[in-house]
Write a structure and sequence with these properties.
Elements lengths: L11 E7 L2 E10 L6 E11 L9 E5 L9 E2 L2 E3 L11 H17 L5 E12 L8 E11 L2 H16 L1 H5 L8 E6 L12 H11 L3
Parallel strand pairs: 3-8
Antiparallel strand pairs: 1-2, 2-3, 3-6, 4-5, 4-9, 7-8
């Protein structure tokens, strides 16, 4: 599959409501003559020092069992409200990555967040022909204080389920955090294993 260059000049920027969640609009870029459209997504691999490639944070889907296959690095789709014509697409993706990390892991500061250059591209089953999505893979370092903040927040969530239920929807999607372990934190089978393999195989060479 051709990986489309979403950073090239002249692409049309837009957003559209999608069937799986019509309450939101999702950001895309579209080629004005070739007609392909790519919805923009980001995924962040967060490490601590000393750096180890397979030691990164993953978060669990709310209300799923700890042993269920619902773990993944913080990731998500860019919303239409976050798209503008002033910023570059790379800047928008970085902002999206930071937002997803804050919402899903409650980490508020990342050192040396960088785009790895790795892109996972595919199609949802209900996409029209020539419509795709791309996950742009970021990597960053989080301090021990930020890691502690994240784990403490999730402990608080477990102790205060009624208060957690009043948080806005985007901040209630995940209810636990852990360091990735292929046995104990089983990955969400929807795209996540492919993204993790891509990162571990090519992103650290």
């Amino acid at each position: 599959m051709t990986i489309f260059d979403i950073f090239q000049k002249g692409l049309i920027r837009g957003s559209e409501r999608l069937a799986f969640d019509p309450q939101k609009q999702y950001a895309y870029v579209e080629h004005p003559t070739e007609g392909w459209r790519v919805y923009l997504r980001s995924c962040a691999f967060l490490h601590s020092q000393p750096f180890h490639p397979q030691r990164f944070l993953v978060v669990k889907k709310t209300r799923s069992r700890y042993t269920s296959a619902t773990w993944e690095p913080p990731k998500g789709q860019m919303e239409g409200k976050d798209m503008n014509n002033r910023s570059s697409i790379l800047e928008l993706l970085e902002t999206n990555a930071l937002r997803e990390v804050e919402e899903e892991s409650h980490i508020t500061h990342i050192d040396n967040l960088q785009h790895t250059g790795l892109v996972f591209q595919s199609q949802e089953l209900n996409y029209p022909d020539n419509h795709y999505f791309q996950y742009h893979i970021f990597r960053g370092i989080v301090s021990h204080e930020q890691v502690e903040q994240s784990f403490n927040t999730f402990r608080w969530i477990k102790e205060h389920p009624k208060a957690f239920s009043r948080w806005r929807r985007d901040r209630r999607e995940k209810d636990s955090v852990a360091w990735f372990d292929p046995t104990n934190t089983r990955l969400n089978p929807r795209w996540t294993p492919d993204i993790v393999v891509l990162y571990l195989r090519e992103g650290l060479m």
